Amino acid sequence: MLFSSIEFIFLFLPIVFILYFVAGKHRKSWAMPILVLASLFFYGYWKPIYLPLIITSTLVNFYLGRLIAPKRGVNNKKILVIGVMLNAGFLVIFKYTDFILENTNLIFNTNYPMLGIILPLAISFFTFQQIAYLVDRYNGIAGNYTLLEYFLFVTFFPQLIAGPIVHHKEMMPQFKALKNANINYTNIEKGIAIFSIGLFKKLIIADYFGGFADKGYAEVSSLNFWGAWSTSLSYTIQLYYDFSGYCDMAIGAALLFNIKLPINFNSPYKAISIQDFWRRWHITLSTWLRDYIYIPLGGNRNGNFKTYRNLFITFVLGGIWHGAGWGFFIWGVLHGLGLMLHRVWQKYDIAMPNFIAWLITMLYVHLTWVFFRADNLADANIIIIKLFSLSDIFKTNISQNLFVNYHLIGSVEGINGPYIALLGLFLFVISATTKNTIELMQASMIEKKRTAFLAALSLSAGILALLGNSSQTFLYFNF
Hints:
Number of helices: 19
Order of helices and strands: HHHHHHHHHHHHHHHHHHH
Distance between the termini: 16 Å
Strand content: under 5%
Number of strands: 0
């Protein structure tokens, strides 16, 4: 079930909201079970066959956590290793089996059949959450939670399918307070406003550019200079607003229940370095990678070489986390190299104007998205080459292709390179210069009235687009 769907907005969310607060008023002990059951229904709505999978994973990790005593010890370490291996193996089986088989066949000339496993929703997110919980239990910084609290921690529907990768120390105190569930009208107003703006980002901007990105990446060989730029920029904009919109909707939906999710997206296209980008993009993933991979590897404590090695390994694993494909691997490699280069640059303390730093960072981010999105490395290389094929610039007859024939309720019938490239560039600049949703919510009273108007307009436009287009995708479902 998508947040940006009729079923979620008009049925699921209102029903759960009413049941939750009715329970909060008359039978507070029912509030948490209602959210757990609603979250499990939400998860199983797409493919009920995978519901036992998340339930089993949650139960196993809960009881492994209980077996780990508050202080470190040999037995605790064995349990931790077993738990991490079970979670990692669980992820590998469902996410990487076909990729491993395909490459085994290619390298050793074997003929193992592909299993065609459909990736269970949210497996990457809830697996990382539970690994963090087990590690923190071993380190003595995670408490003994009840089974119901732990189930809600893993399955809470606003964060379940697309993150953020929540941490127990942020969420458990809030879940424990659910017994005091009472309506908070300020949170409801903010929640609806944030959700509405996110809905607009997803349906009006991300899905619009997604049509051009899909068409361009499906016809890589026919692209010229303008086609390559319009295609790659379309994906750069689509991914930004798709993820940003879903983060907004997650925060907004959770706030309706007086739960504050961590900010996971903070205007990453404003970044003036690759390090700054990763402090703004998928913040909870960056934090997880830092706390549970980079620092355990040694962080920056053992000299420059090991610091660079640790950065590289961390971001290669971060790339692979996103999916089973060489494009994700290369994307992780490029970001690891970019962070290494940034550290070298910092070491020599070379000054650079912020605008130039922003331009270089964004161009690098944009180019690496090509490997992230392309169906294969050959297509990615073709697009990269065409992005710099300056001889193609004047081969497009702009006067004959000034507009593009695109319908929100239909499909892309043609891509106009210059028009879409300029439109994508315009949205890129807007993303880098305007306030994000969270900043709008923290504005002055006068600006809040404008924000309320913007939210109402966003909600109206989003619902109209939703009613006119039932075919949607959400990019982070694939990760």
